[in-house]
Amino acid sequence: MIQAIGLFLLSLLLFFACQPKNEAQKIIDQAIAKHGGAQLSHAQLSFDFRERHYEVKLNQGQFQYESMFEDSLGNTLHDELDNEGFSRKVNGEEINLSEEDNSRFTNSLNSVVYFALLPYYLNDQAVNKKLLGQTMIKGEPYHEIEVTFNQEGGGADHEDVYIYWVHQQNKTMDYLAYSYHTDDVGTRFREAYNVREIGGIRFADYINYEGTLENFSLEDYETLFEEGKVKEFSRIELKNIEVLTDESELAVIGQ
User: Fold this and answer.
1) Minimal CB count within 10 Å: which of 23, 32, 61, 89?
2) Contact 204, 31 (CB under 8 A)
3) Where are the alpha helices (DSSP H) in the chain?
């Protein structure tokens, strides 16, 4: 009997091991590859965003994010986030931070890098992916992927919900929408533009549209967008991008 149970459990394990990845996972894997995931697994890059300079180092799960800028008083601030935690230096001297400020500054730095390198981080352990279906935007076919987060490992924004639209043929992530609950509550829709490849990595700027309706599903943004019912809120623009890959090839773009 014990032997029979053992064989049964083994057959179950083999059965599930042989099952193909769910469709949402396959689509995200293809998008990450298309956007330069292989290069991002081991790379150094930098860019400027809204008066701040960012530097990012990635090495097989190890990471270091840095942000350098001046405050309104002319002080030089240097933020750093890595696998060990967050620190801030003011004029070269590390300062003590309250738990609230530490969390706020960590989320701010992490968020900028997260959005800049999408969809690279969509395979983190806390991420849940679901294929909602297929749709058309501007006459082009897209997969519609919903992303949610586990509370454990999902960070302060674990309640946020995202929708990503991945082109069915090109495998590119061209649109995204999200609801946010940190500090405030609302929704946004983003459209990629000024797409360019640097050092084998695909970067894009985004037109950021504001939420125009309350209590509606994020996937409805595609219809509102097509009908011209979403209003531009801001532009997300990365400038002076530099990428140093593990082949030590440096690519530079000025704008």
Assistant:
1) 61
2) no
3) 2-17, 23-34, 37-40, 99-116, 221-226
Bridge partners (DSSP) of residue 45 are 56, 243
Q: Is 6 helix (H, G, I), strand (E, B) or coil?
A: helix
Q: Phi/psi at 40 (nearest 5 deg)?
A: -70, -20
Cβ(107)–Cβ(194) below 8 Å: no
Query: SS3 breakdown of the chain: % helix, strand, coil, rounded to 5?
Result: 25, 45, 30
Angle at 33 between CA 29 and CA 34, to 5 degrees: 115
**What number of CA atoms fall less than 13 Å from residue 133's CA on the CB side?**
5
Q: How far apart are CA 246 and CA 59, in angstroms?
A: 9
Q: What are the start-end ranges of the H helices in 78-211?
A: 99-116
Six-digit token string for 189: 């829709």
Name the residue with tokens 């999902």: 154
Strand, helix or coil for residue 213:
coil
CA distance 248 to 12: 46
Residue type, 111: S
Q: What is the pLDDT along the chain (255 residues), one digit of tens a residue?
A: 444 444 444 444 443 343 445 999 999 999 999 999 999 989 999 999 999 999 999 998 899 999 999 999 999 999 999 999 999 999 999 999 999 999 999 999 999 999 999 999 999 988 999 999 999 999 999 999 999 988 665 455 567 899 999 999 999 999 999 987 666 667 889 999 999 999 999 999 999 998 755 667 888 899 989 999 899 999 999 999 999 865 444 454 444
Both tokens assigned to 205: 């700027």
Instruction: Count how many Cα atoms sit within 13 Å of the Cα of residue 39 in the half-sphere of its side chain.
Output: 22
